[in-house]
Amino acid sequence: MPLRYLTIDFNSFFASVEQQERPELRGKPLGIVPVMAETTGCIAVSIEAKQRGLKRNLRVAEARRLCPDFVAVEARPETYINYHRKLVGIIRDCAPEIEVQSIDEVTCRLHSFLMNRTQAEKLAKQIKARITAEVGPLLRSSIGIAPTWLLAKVASDMQKPDGLVILEDADIPAKLLHLAPGDIAGIGPNMQERLRNHGITAMAQLYAASLTELRGIWKSVRGEQMWRLLHGEDLDYFSQIGGQTIGHGHVLPPARRNAEDALAVLHRLVQKAAMRLRHSGSFTGGLSVTVDYTDDTAWHGDLRLTETQDTLELSRALTQIWAKRPPADRRRVPLRIGVHLTHLIGMDQHTPDLFAQENAQSHDRLLKAVDHLNKVLGKDSVYFGGAHGATKEAPMRIAFTRIPEPEIEEIDRSYEGRLKKKKPPAVEPEAW
């Protein structure tokens, strides 16, 4: 089995970016938080924090109790995205065929001349050296090289931080047997429980299981794919079910945990999602709204639509869905809200409504102007009235599987030079 894949996993990525940007944070246990509050959880922690036993999602107050010198740093998503783009550019320059798995993980397919150990290891060290020289020494990475992308991902997790692990044919399965089944990508808590129910609790048992057994446990072809990848067969990446919805969620701050403010924030979320929808060239045929309450109950409502990109249509749909809440839910305190645009189709599948074509064209011109102004002047420079008072809520966030585009959700920096006021020419003093 040749070495076909190289996976790069950036260790404690958000925290490492902050330490690269701010020398005073280097060597300190820090956590990246969405807002500066003792009750919020850490969305990421630094390598030093991990060494002190702190983990992601830990509340700030608890982190301070466990680690008195803990430092909380408010997240800066646009900065992390800029670093991600620089890193991807370097990796693509070294190995052109890449797959971006997430903001902190990239997998490269190795071409034939790189498939031997010497050349693959040389490439890994070249990537590390260029990142250190061109981005910064704090952006440490763990690299795994293996015959399949799944094994390369496993290898990238085996030596952290700043590791380099190569799994060759002769190493498999011996160098995997110390792992647990849950250490393999694609085996989450539910699948681990299903494996336990079939008597598989150790890596050796998973590896020894037959192709037919794994297909039966997964109850799909995914089990067969898992078997083949673990045994060194070159298969495509697991297809992620993505692009079927566009959505946003938000945890309401205590002051906004009431129906009126929750609705305003929902309008804000709908307007953000609609702008992304238009940018993607898609149309939506449905809107879904969810609310989680402080008493651990939840409500969900949805509405099918004539396919649209129109923020005004989606705002009207939101108002209709919101009005359908049961009386008991109207007395509850909303905590977490979300919207999703569903039943998406591409531009090529869209059939315009002949009876509303003139109205649709005028709305289209309006929405293009609104989107353009927000890109040029910054988000919510122009917005629809339903979101009034909530435009500061739900800032840009980075989800594990979706890297947002600041040019769409925040501001397109390429316009900045055109917006700056020109200085009047200097007036030469008159000669005496």
Number of helices: 16
Shape: globular
The overall strand count is 13
The low-confidence parts are 239-243
> How is the largest sheet built, in terms of strand order?
5-6-1-7-8
- Based on CA atoms alone, the radius of gyration comes out at 25 Å
Q: Could you give the distance between the termini?
A: 87 Å
Question: What structural category arises from helix and sheet content?
Answer: alpha+beta
Residue-averaged pLDDT, rounded? 86
Structure, described:
- The chain is an alpha+beta fold.
- Helix content is 38%, strand content 17%.
- The strands form three sheets. It has a five-stranded mixed sheet with strand order 5-6-1-7-8. Strands 9, 10, 11, 12 and 13 form a five-stranded antiparallel sheet that branches. Strands 3-2-4 form a three-stranded mixed sheet.
- Helix 4 runs antiparallel to helix 5 and helix 11 packs antiparallel against helix 12.
- It is globular and about 65 Å long.
- It starts with a strand and ends in a 13-residue tail after the last helix.
- About 1% of the residues have low confidence.
Please sum up the structure shown.
By secondary structure, the protein is α+β, with helices and mostly antiparallel strands.
Which SSEs are present, and which pair or pack?
Elements: E1 5-10, H1 13-21, E2 30-33, E3 44-45, H2 47-51, H3 60-66, E4 71-74, H4 77-94, E5 98-102, E6 105-109, H5 117-134, E7 141-146, H6 149-156, E8 164-166, H7 189-197, H8 203-208, H9 211-218, H10 221-230, E9 246-251, H11 259-280, E10 282-293, E11 298-308, H12 311-323, H13 327-330, E12 334-342, E13 345-346, H14 357-377, H15 406-409, H16 416-419
Parallel strand pairs: 2-4, 7-8
Antiparallel strand pairs: 1-6, 1-7, 2-3, 5-6, 9-12, 10-11, 10-12, 10-13
